[in-house]
Write a structure and sequence with these properties.
Shape: globular
Oligomer: single chain
Structural class: mainly alpha
Helix content: 55-70%
CATH architecture of the largest domain: Alpha Horseshoe
Length: 232
Amino acid sequence: MTASDLQVRLRALGNPKDAAFLSRFFKTGPGDYGEGDLFIGVRVPVTRRVAAEFKTLPLDEVQRLLHSEIHEERLASLLILAMQVKANEKIRKRIYDLYIANTRYVNNWDLVDLSAPSLVGEYLATRSRRPLYRLARSRWLWDRRISILATLHFIRLGDFTDTLAIAELLLGDHEDLIHKAVGWMLREVGKRNATILEDFLDRHSKVMPRTMLRYAIERLPEAQRRRYLARD
């Protein structure tokens, strides 16, 4: 199996109408966050099925796929990595290293969200978390989103320390997609420990971007939501 084999298979499934829709949905126009990204019109469930057919693709071929200009092909490469890391823990470091060396190709929110927790967070769960703080300080939007999304794995383990610390680093971020990601992760913390979330909000809600705050408080009782939103 090669990357070219998968590309032939995937491109045969493309649909021009779906490609146009996905291009709009993922904001590929001039000045948008996904500017220049190319879609062939394959929906995610179909891409998952194709990726499963190629789940044993060698890592060098997966990397070739990750470098594709086609969004669905990069998505397929990340789905394959996620399958390979579950099937064979021995290659986890190789997959992590490949991912970190190629984050410039993990360049839309769906690609980050499906890959960062399992390929970055899970690897770092028993290791130093310093790489996440380097990503959080990156000028590259998607590095910063990776940094906070990777902590979802820690949250699921009941470990909130890095989520809260990285959220503090990103409070002043100017990108709406970071505001949404941070708010989402804070909400996930709150689902498991409302007291910790409320303590964070008590300290930071006045300076949090409005979108971040709204995402973070979504599951709180209405009276609490109103109280936080009323702060200025």
